[in-house]
Amino acid sequence: MPLREKLNQQTKSLNRMEDHMGDRTFDRPVLVRNGQFIQEIRSLDHAFDFLDEWPRERRGPIFETAFRACQRAYDGQIPLSVARDAVAGFARSVKILQEPLAPLPWMSGTKSGRGGVAA
User: Fold this and answer.
1) In the chain, where the domains are located
2) Which of the residues 4, 40, 75, 80 has an alpha carbon 20 to 30 A from that of 102?
């Protein structure tokens, strides 16, 4: 097979994979604290990675519920939003859920009459 044709085939395969993953993207990410960092769980694939990395000795019924919800969403049995909420519920139960930070007033301030931002 010529190299150009092989590259085109690989590109098409990657595009199909991206389209497939795009179908499993949450409407908004679940934010979890991971030590000093905040991790974004943006899709079903990210949720599976997060749950898979969770220590086995710290898993319990709420973990299992979140995992089953992700499996059912993957199989198309329930909406992605239900899986997203289950992952968020698990993160809340283990006290690592990070609520989105509200923007500081000067970041989203109201405009003054002269096109600036009110101080």
Assistant:
1) 41-100
2) 80
Structure tokens at 91: 């993160």
Residues of the chain short of pLDDT 70, as ranges, are 1-23, 102-119
* Element (DSSP H or E) covering residue 90: helix 80-93
For the segment 78-102, what is each residue's pLDDT rounded down to a tens digit? 999 999 999 999 999 999 999 887 6
Residues 6+ apart with CB under 8 A from 80: 24, 25, 26, 27, 44, 73
Burial letters 105-119, b for 16+ CB under 10 A, else e:
eeeeeeeeeeeeeee
Residue 101 has a pLDDT of 73
